[in-house]
TrEMBL record:
It is found in: Cell inner membrane. Residues 14-421 form the TRAP C4-dicarboxylate transport system permease DctM subunit domain. NCBIfam families: dctM (TIGR00786). Keywords: Cell inner membrane, Cell membrane, Membrane, Transmembrane, Transmembrane helix, Transport. GO terms for molecular function: transmembrane transporter activity. This is TRAP transporter large permease protein. It comes from the Bacteria. It comes from Aquincola agrisoli.
Amino acid sequence: MSSEGLAFIVFCGGMLVLMGIGMNMALALVLTGAGMAWVLEFWDTQLLAQNLVGGVDSFALLAVPFFILAGELMNSGGISRRIIDMAQAWVGHIRGGLGYVAIGAAVLMASMSGSALADTAALATILLPMMKRQGYPLPTSAGLIASGGIIAPIIPPSMPFVIYGVTTNTSISALFISGIVPGILMGVGLIVAWKLVLRKLDLPAGEPLPMRERLRATGKAFWALLMPVIIIGGMKSGVFTPTEAAVVAAFYALAVALLVHREMRVAELRGVLVRAAKTTAIVMFLCAGAQVASYMITLADLPGVLTGWLGPLVENPRLLMAVMMVVLVLVGTALDLTPTILIFAPVMLPIAVKAGIDPVYFGLMFVLNGAIGLITPPVGTVLNVVAGVGRLPLHQVIKGVNPFLITYTLLLVLFVIFPQIVTAPVAWMR
C-alpha cells in the first residue's frame, strides 16, 4: 500500500477512534495530523508547531472573537430581549403566536450575532418559560427554538462563513450575500411548518395589543434593528470589511448596552469578556488543530483520491452536489459545524470546482448542511443547549425538532435543483 493510502486510513481511522473515546476534537486533529506526518515520512515537530500557529494567524479570523463578543453583549445588554418583545407585540396574540415570535426573533437576531449557540440560548431562556406558562407542548417548542437558532450561521454576519472563507480562500463578502435569501427562506419554511404543527395543538388566541403598545415596543427595539443595517450597509458600501464589521458590531452592542439601554454595568463587562474569551479559545484551538490535519491532507493528496472515486459524477454537477450533501449530512450527525468546515471543506471544494460548481454556492450549501447538523442527533449541539435551558430530556427535544428538520431537508433539495436561488443574488449584489 502506498504511503498516501496509508495516510488516508490513518486519518479516517484515527479520527473515528479518538472521537469514540471522547477526546477533545482539536487534540484529535493534531494527533491525527501528526500520525499522517509519520506515515508520510514528513515528521518534523517544528513544522507541526508552525502549522498550529498558522491555523490562527489570519486577519480574517479576527472576526470570530468579535462576533462572539457581540452575541454575548446582545444577550447581556437587553438587545435580544427587546427584539423578542417587539415580535411578541406584533404577532404574540395570534393562535400559536409565541412560535411566530420565536421565528421572527431568530431571523432578526441572526442578522446581528452569527452564532447559533448564542441566539438559541437567548431565545430558549426567554421564550421557553413563557411557552410553558401558556400551555405550549415543551418538546415541540424546544424543537422550534432550536430550528430557529441555526438560521444564525446562514444570514450575515455569519461566523461559520468567516471560518469557511479563511479555510478555502473564498470571498467572505460574497458568502455573506449568498446567505440572505436562503436564510429568509429558512424562516418562511419554519412558519409553514409551524402552521402545520399547530393543527394538532389546542392553543388559544390572545387579545391584540393596542397600536400604541406595538409602536412603543418597536421603538424600544430601534437600536437593535439599526445594528444589521449598519453592518450589512457598511460592508455593501465598502466602508469596512467583514472583519472590521465584526469589530463594529461588538462596539455597537457595547455602546447600546452601556449607554442607551443601560441594562449592563461596567462591572458586568468582565464576565461577558471571560465568556467570550472561553468560546473564542475553543474555536481558535479547533482552527489550529485543523490546520495541522489539513496540511497533511494536502501532502497525501486526499482531494485527488476523492476526485478519482467521484470521477464519473464530475460530469453531472447537480448529482455530484446531491451526493456531497448526503455525505455532509452524515458527517454533520457526528461532528460540530466548525470542525466539519475545517476538515472537509478543503477536501471537497476542489472537487466541486472541477465539476464547475460555484465556490460561493458550494460554501453556502456546505455551511447550511453543517448548520442542520447542529439539530441532528447524536451530536446536535443546539439540541443540547435547548434541552439544558428547558431542563428537558434530549429525546423529547429530538422528537420535537423532527417536523422542522424535514422542512430544512426539503429546502436543501430545492437549493440543489435551483442553485440560482443562491447565485443570482450574489451576482446582482456584485
